[in-house]
Design a protein that fits this description.
Blueprint (H helix, E strand, L loop, with lengths): L2 H31 L8 E8 L4 E4 L3 E5 L8 E7 L14 E6 L7 E6 L7 E12 L4 E10 L1 E3 L2 E6 L21 E15 L5 E6 L3 H21 L11 E6 L7 E4 L9 E5 L6 H18 L6 H6 L5 H11 L12 H6 L15 H7 L1 H11 L3 H10 L4 H6 L6 H13 L12 H9 L3 E4 L6 E9 L3 E8 L9 E16 L4 E13 L2 H6 L3 E7 L10 E11 L4 E18 L3 E13 L4 E2 L3 E4 L2 E9 L3 E11 L8 E12 L4 E10 L4 E4 L4 E9 L4 E11 L5 E21 L1
Parallel strand pairs: 12-13, 13-15, 16-18
Antiparallel strand pairs: 1-4, 2-3, 3-6, 4-5, 5-11, 6-10, 7-8, 7-11, 9-10, 11-12, 14-15, 17-22, 18-21, 19-20, 19-21, 19-22, 23-24, 23-25, 23-34, 26-27, 27-28, 28-29, 29-30, 30-33, 31-32, 32-34, 33-34
Length: about 725
Amino acid sequence: MSKKITLFVKFISMNLLLLLLTVLLFQTCSDDNSPTEPGVASTLAETTIGTGGGTLTTDELELNVPIGAFAGDTKISLSVEKEDAGFDNALSKEYKFEGLPQTFTKPLTIKMKYNGDLTDNSYIAIGEDTFVKSLDGETTSYRLISARDSSGYLVATIPPTSDNGLFKGSSNTSLNGDDVAFSALAIAGYVSYTSPNGHFKISFPSSVITQAYDLSDYLEAAYTKFQSLGFSYSRRTKWPIEVTVKRLESSVYGYSMNSMWGDNYGYMEFNFDKMGNAVDMKVTAGHEFFHLVQSLYDPRNRFSKAKFKSPHLWLDEASSVWSEEFFGGTSGYVSSVFDINAYEILKGAKDGSSDNAQSYGYGMASFIKYLTKEKGDDALVDVYDEIYAGKEVFSAISSVLPVNVSFSWNSYLKKLFSFSLYNGGSFRPPTLLSTARLKKHNFIVKSADDTLKTYKASLSDLGSTLFSIKNEFDKLNSAAELEFTCKGWNFQIYKVNSVESKFLVSGKDTLTLKDFKKIADKGYQIAVALYNDDMNSPYATTKDYEMEIRVKTPKGIKWIYFDIGYSGTFNYSDPAIGPPTESEREASMGTYEIIWSKDIQINGNTIIAYQDTTDQYSHVITKLQIEFEDIKNPVNIVSFSFEQTKSSVSFNLVETYAASGANAPFLMEDYGNAGSRFEYEGNITSYLTNLQYSYVMVKSDNDLFTQELLSYKSDGIIQFIIEYQ
């Protein structure tokens, strides 16, 4: 290798090494000086406190645990929260305590250094990470504890936890090793007001004092209303309920929370920025207070109620949404959350652990309204009594209804889709049709070729789906019918326009809707609700369906012709000639002429023809009855009967004919372009149940000349000819 090349390689190597060291140095400096990620707490202090009590102390804060408060050694840690708590007048950082036991039997004392001026009243806000039903998730929410000033520190007392049975079960598994965590920060500039009846203590910035007084009235009205329905508040022994007004997310009006401290400490928060919206705040107050009432019927322990989704979450939301009409202030009130989620019920039964249990509950407000209309408002109290006794939601409801939920589903859907439960907002009759379109279940008849649509899918327990049928074919036969077939399934049929949804018929397997064209010409479309009324917890099974929708034009009958050809033995009697004689001959009977449509009626699957005619020779009365297996598809004659009487106009002469039969294996063939010919040739004795003929003539000397069929041979012909319109 040359010297120049060697020097060049050394130069490159040294520069690469220098570059690598620079990168490593930069990386190390960057890691050492990177700030803590937003929202991630940094530990300030920790200590272990046992039965002898103790104190967790920093320059800014002190938590004192008295002797005997803890049952054993507990490691408590302290950190600083990075999230915004929503208080405009916070006077300290927000600190978080973790590791406290689920139960402590004596009050704790907290002392926090504050920065700024103490205006109005001072508090320490205690925040809990709790599951909030109305958010369907966990959030940090706050209740305010009155604090006193002590030389630059605010001092407050945190009450001991309640002991209401912390047994462990599948639905009562706590987080983080069963410890309790809460946050705390100092605030001022708040005032408190206790409602006149003493049930609610509202803490709020003084700038919304008038609205806070109104809020207390809304809450007291809700308290009185649910008590009047029969709900008991006896499991809560500590009043008033703490209510905090602060900034929440912009879309939120307020919510209620269960507390890890127990039923006596369930509390509420309302959005400072929404306080001026009186109507919505009144509805929210009723809705959220009802959630606290419901929690008194929740059999789980206090920790589980505070931290986990309820196994009856959908019932809680459905009931609270239903209750909003008590506070909505208008006739025909429809909750906006029901409005948005009304068709969630189509997805089928849910338990509380389902991902969309909340939205399902919003939609199921209609079922709660159905329940209370059927059994009275107090029926809901009975349901919650069953919940407290440990029953699953649908079992609890079934025990209150006259029949179980499964058997009630048809009646419920009929009222829901007739819009007699709710009809307002965007939940109006045309939504049946638009929902079917969204599912691509819309059948539009545009031509004579549009005669059949088939839809296949599956539905879960108590699941439903919708279909719509619209006519856009001007030349559709005026007698057109719709035939719906879905074997093993129940369904309902409605006619729907822009203002009404009218129930028409319900049934199973096959339903026929007559006069489809006439209904469509009046501006209606047809909606069909198909539903699965199976109900097997945990509602995870599905059932396949195949729905066929046919457009059928019944065959109008233009005329009918009938005859029977046979050989028989006849008795002849004429006293003027001699004794009676018998002879055999071929004979026939039948209409002999066409019976026209004006003399024909259709009753179910039966054609009845009746003709009464008179000419210069005779007066003839004919009755013919033909029963088909299916009149809409007339290919199989089940039975027939024929009766005819002929009376001579000129002579005293009467002939009578009668025949009846069943299940003859007719051969059917087309008759011309618009008819059918049914013919059987063979052993007619196997299918005729009756064949009669008689002839009676009164002669001038009053003697009688008679003929009568005595018997007939097996071979013969039976024939019908039917021409359609």
